[in-house]
Amino acid sequence: MKTSEMSSDKLTWTLTGATVTCVLAVYVASAPRAVSGGDSGELITAACELGVAHPPGYPLFTMLSSLILLLLPLSSPAHSINVLCAVFGAGASGALCFTVCRMAGPGPGAVLAGGVFAVSRLVWQWSVVAEVFSLNNLFVGILFSLSACFHCAESAHHKKKFALWGALFCGLSLCNQHTLVLYVVIIIPWALLHLYTHNGLSFFGLVSLGTCFLAGIVPYIYLPISSYINRARWSWGDQTSLHGLLTHLLRAEYGTFSLAKTDENLNLLKMLRAQWNHCVNDLSTPVLVLALLGILLSLWNRLRCVFICLIVTMVSIYSVFFAWRANLNIEKPLLLGVVERFWLQADAGVCVLAGLGLSWAVCWLNGRLGWGTLWNTGAWILTAGLISHMISLNHKECDQSGNDVLDRFGREVVLSLPASSLVLTRGDLPGNTLRYVHYCQGLRPDLSLVDQEMMTYSWYVAKLQKHLPGVKFPGRLWDPINTMEKKTFNIEQFLKHNMHRPVFSCIGLTEGDPSWERSFSRWPWGVCEQLVPAKTPFDPEKWAQKTLDLYNWSQSHDSFHPGSWERVANEEMWQARMKTAFFLFDLAENMEKEQQARLYELSYNLYCQIADAQVDYPANWDKNLALAAERLLRSGGRGHGLDSLLSRSILHFSRYLQREPTDPQSKAIRSIITHLKKEREKLRDRQKA
Fold first, then answer.
1. What is the DSSP string of 520-578?
2. CA distance 675 to 673
3. 157 or 62, which is more confident?
4. Is 593 exposed, middle or buried (0-12, 13-18, 19+ CB in 10 A)?
5. Span 441-459, pLDDT tens digits
6. pTM for the whole thing?
7. For residues 585 and 627, is the Cβ–Cβ distance under 8 A?
8. Is the model's pLDDT at 233 over the cut of 70?
């Protein structure tokens, strides 16, 4: 019997090790060498600077990432941390494989659980970039594995040992992503009840479990230490006080138990339906059928049924709770991309159920019909087929080894700015990417980066005053309401105090404070805008020439998935080409005739120069170019042939309608096209006469 157990244990570790190795090879080969979108830039910057990331702080991820930068200095800081996350992801797949081995014995079901989870689209996608999700997946797998070992342990002594390890990892898991609390609050009472029924619970045992749990959350000490030292040029929050620490841990600045600081709520059933569609599309129908089979086959065995009930309860409660609290509009592709990452935690449970379903189905068929080798071989073929199919399906999208779009975006923006510029960033795209290339890669140390949203927090201004002495803050924080009473400032006051250097906003200024309009103008500068005093003379020809070739951007238009940050960055770079032309057109609308015609002509020439140089470009370029041609036509043409202007306007209005047939103004545009065609016919008739 012992020999059989040793053989089973050896095969378990062999299968687990093989799964981890294969998945790690796939992940490392597909990991990007540069920074990715979302929170990656911020998390890497926190690791480079030993600062604090956004709430709840992710101290464990930050410390491990900082350590890997010292131990594994690859081509870039982003590459090193991406590889670290690949290791976490491979470990997660191995842990799921181990869980099934412990519950059903080593075999194809274990490999299916770890393999299918690893190469499903979302898991693969988020396991090769510097994000906290692969570490969260690893903790999910470890908690599942320890729960299986605890459940199958035959003696109270062994159950206590696994319970202590479980308590430690419950604490550690909460040092990363707080969504795991919904698994932890189910595992803890389940384990305590289990110990109680096996006479393994005592006062000393409870104290030991509590001590292990508290030991697990020790990494949170990093937050007040980092905040107190205040050496990081980028860090979120002030955790030197208990109130500040709790504010950060409970995500009070975002909204506790919410994804974002917004009042938007979606229908619970709609969110659950979206998650179900994800399971069908990404995990596949056969996997869901096997998961259901695992639940059904557990009903006739008490040992199996208890563990299955634990997994099903965790996945169900988590899915319903998250659907209730996910306050983002998933009809927008980018926000759907934010939400769907949190479904990975439930996917792990589904894959374990599927692996158990396959293993128990083979045992059941062998027990009823015999021919064990046949069923086992069939299960291996099914496992290999499913995993191979998913790899072929997802490889193209998930292979990010050549993706450097966000890195190039950040580099192009910072390199285009004048010396010693003050840059006011807005949003995750410019904020996180510019911080990464500036702080982690040392690009353009002469610049000063200030986050607009962060200026609304007093702790941010206090921290920044130490690290950016050249930036003047005329108050405690940015708040346009009651500035005298609260000792705060509005954006106009901030700009007036910093006019000794060029000031740029990237991308745009935060809405809600129009005070800048009294004293300043915004001139286009690629994806950014320069804020200049309103009385500054504007030379349109000189500015057009200055901003014409700001970026060396060769990425083709419309080349990324609509829900990706790469799509957003690429779109910003493409629209940046036209910003000066659009600005001049907008400026002309409020000018006198001669000056108006001059600006229309300059805008039209810029549009033609930029559009004619591209094979494919955004649809709104056609509309804007058509309008510029039509306005210049009305202004007399200024030396341009009237027939040429009419033809340009007709051509680009028509192209625009072909590409955007649902535009609300489509009816009016068709009328304009008809009118312009008539005018062109009249003009040609006059020329013939």
1. EEEEEETTEEEEEETTS---HHHHHHHTTT-----PPTT-S-TTSHHHHHHHHHHHHHH
2. 5
3. 62
4. exposed
5. 999 999 999 999 889 888 9
6. 0.91
7. yes
8. yes
